[in-house]
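Lesson 9: reading folded outputs for more than one chain in a single document. The general rule is that every protein is listed as its sequence immediately followed by its structure tokens, and records are never interleaved. Here is the first one.
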Amino acid sequence: MSTARRRITPAERRARLVRRHLLTPSLRAKTPEEVADALVALHATDPATVYLSFAARCAEPEVAALERALYQERTLARIRCMRRTVFVLPHGLAPVAYAATARPLAAKQRAQTARQLHAACSWDERRYAAVEAATLAALAQRGAAGAAELAADVPELREQIVTFPGKPWGHRPCPSGYGGESRQRLSAPVLGVLAAEGRIRRARPLGSWTSAQFRWAPADPLPHLPAGDAKTELARRYVATFGPVTVEDLKWWTGWNLTDTRRALAATGAEQVALDEGTGHLLPEDVDDRGPATDVEPAAALLPGLDPTAMGWRHRDWYLDPEHKKALFDRSGNIGPTVWWEGRIIGAWAQRRDGRLAWEPLAARLDRTARAAVEAEIARLTAFLGPTRVTPCYRTPLERRLAG
């Protein structure tokens, strides 16, 4: 009996990507929930990424629909999970992602914060617990509040400490990044731990949908799931959406160590396939599914910086020419806005100060069909943005140049 593994070509992988990531008009979603479910999770370090990832994959995208799912119906949850990064994901998947990736980190964050507060402010455990209790009570009274409002209610939150003492480098351009020595109100670490533990949640931000100044609100407790079961389920969801994947892909996407990655992948029952990068893995029901390789309509897409498709794999050469990485990524490995055609990155786009969208192809040759499809997506995204101006949280060389 033959033991040869099924080979999956880069072209077939790109066809699977187009279909499963909703990057073709006939498969566009109707709701934000459908988009989040299809992609497992939407990268949310940059608040605008969530909306632009949704708009690229929805037949008739509306900001109000996503805001309703996030802040009113709460069918989508915004939590810090994979790679210690904030994602928006289906409400039902939030406990899985938390147990699989974030719960141990939350415990470490609490211990680290307690040590920091003791060293800087002489807070013992009783004082720390009292401030947390007062903060939660104030938040319950207000319903939703920003850090400054809570600091007005709880005086201890207005105290300041020095962070990263002696570090010479400056701040990164994104509020979630770390920088050099600075002074910080105690509201930041206290609220950060409560959020990491799932005791409070990010509510509607101050300002527009591009704002990162989130209010806070009380959160419903997440059900406690066994870590092993949660890791298996998260790995299964990832392989179903992004497969075929390598062990390195799953390890990078989740932030797990190699042992946990291999154990979770094995528990999914995934089967081995042959890829250009080496051994890949697919769920058993997908191994013999050859439909995606032969039944994909030509499709263009404009994806934002940090989009979950562009950031979905550790190995990217099958959809991104290595020669283009320098133009499309910043120094920390964050990808900027990209233009896609038939499952491959072919260029970049940016919004100029006057609101117009500009793009530049990186591919050597693009036929009229591809260019027309990209222009159609430019028009579609322009209509979605309206008067809104979006500057990526992480700027990349080509995006900066196109923005002017």
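And here is the second record, again sequence then tokens.
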Amino acid sequence: MSNDAKVSGCGQQELTFDGGEGHGFSAESLTVADVLSLPSMRGARLIGGAAGLDRVVELSNVMEVPDILPWVKPGELMLTTAYPIRDRPEDLAGLLETFDRHGLAAIGLKSGRYLEQIPEAAVRAADALGLPLIHLGEDVGFDEIMQEVLTGNLDRRAQVIARTEASMRELVDVVVGGGDLADVCRMLAQWTGVAAAVTTLDGRVRCLRTADAEVSSAEVSALECFDRSGRFRVEDEPAGASRRGEPRGGSGDARSARTGPGRDENTTANEALNWGNVVIEGGRRPADETLPAASNLGRIVAFGARTLRAGDFRLLEQAAAAAALVITREQAITAVESKYRTDFVLEVLRGHIASSDRVLSHAHSLGWDLDRPISIAVAEVDSEADSTDASNKRTMQSLFADAWTKVVSQFDPRAAVVGSGDQVIVLLAAEPRERIVRRLEEFVSSVRGHGGGGRRQFSVGISRPAEGVSRLAPAYQEAMRALEVGRQLARGQGLRHYDSLGVYRLLLQVGEQTELRNFAEEVLGPLATDAKEEYAGLRETLQELLDHNLNVAETARALFFHYNTLRYRIGKLEQMVGPFTEDPDLRLSLALALQIVKLP
């Protein structure tokens, strides 16, 4: 059994630092399997709890008194001659359960003098708990074991320090040498032995690299920490915690596909993987709470074959710092380019055009084609429903603009897409109304879903086709009016074409908006306000009656009201606004007033 235990230990992934590629994470402390391979453990046999060979041994202790429990610490290797239970060997099984609750790593027992034979009940308990139970050799000295455990752990910690320094130098070389996120992920994947990824603030994968030829990116993305769209579940994955899981739907099929003759199933990618992540923070972390906090730039995730520990997360934090430098550098470059592009588009949309030919030429130099019929779409985040933290505002705005650029370019590579605060402006090839609306619906679906727009509520307005550069400014105003109306009618998630605004197109042309409000208040009276909670419901009832041509039965069904309840409401409405059931002119005025109330 001794040989089996030690072979099992040697079969574990070696985690010490050797300075080469693909060396995996460093372990700061010995595992039980490592302890079994120490010279002082010659003649030792693992007789139970083999499932716990990967338990970490932080230190060792000796039990020779009955009241040892107050001094038991998690991660200890407990050495004993069984003297405290010499008269009650049957208590050993219960003692193992108590030790396991205290987080003990393993127990080494020297039988013979005080305990002739280890009870079978104790062996069964060790197996059930996964708590290694080791039978020590007769000539083994406790002081020798304790010294080698201490020395081994000190050596491991020295290796971790060396590894940390070496990894920091490698990461600095990558960043200084102009490396990108792919280089950071590739290096981290070599350290973990499996894979590494960098995501955006909301979990969209920006880069994923694997180091193990037996593991593909698709297999990593199939783990439960990713949703069906491939987004890392940042809301469910706490930073700094090691997690373990298998691909969604199980790994049986994947196992069959990846294993074959000559392949060791214990070392293939079909085993469940472990992962952990840390936040990539930009800027400095201020000690003064009055100063702005560091911005959240995303997450960096490491995937390995074993549980990630404190030393692993230190390496992850170093990689996160390097990723932050790369992302910040990219953002700085992008910000300058984006501002240049945005300023140009806004000048055109404000009508500041010195020469159409010059505008077309400049647009062409930016990769845009404005020398064709253009439809303008404006997407704007609903500021009232947006809960984005102020420190992450700019990052989310960038994600929103990037998502629109990504989805629009797949349809129209020559379209102009620029971001301006919470707004994205798109100038794309014009199409008939029904087709352009369907096109934008697809864009909106992609941005809200797989595109990585940050899962924020936003509305979209679409203009009529603009012929020529000089018509872009009026088209932009049309898109903005459609956006404003759509946002009001759809509560922050509308999509409206200017031609679908109906009577709103006329109402929005009225220069004096105060006059419109006065008209609505004259016609609706107190119903034009929300002074009482019931007024909104009464307006809805009135609108449904007008929409159903005063058909009480149909209106009652649409509102899920009882017929008599609706008759009562009609009476109440006529007391407030007049006999609209008998006066068609009043009904027209009421219909207009109800639309005015909805205006932004």
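What the second record shows: The longest strand covers residues 273-282.
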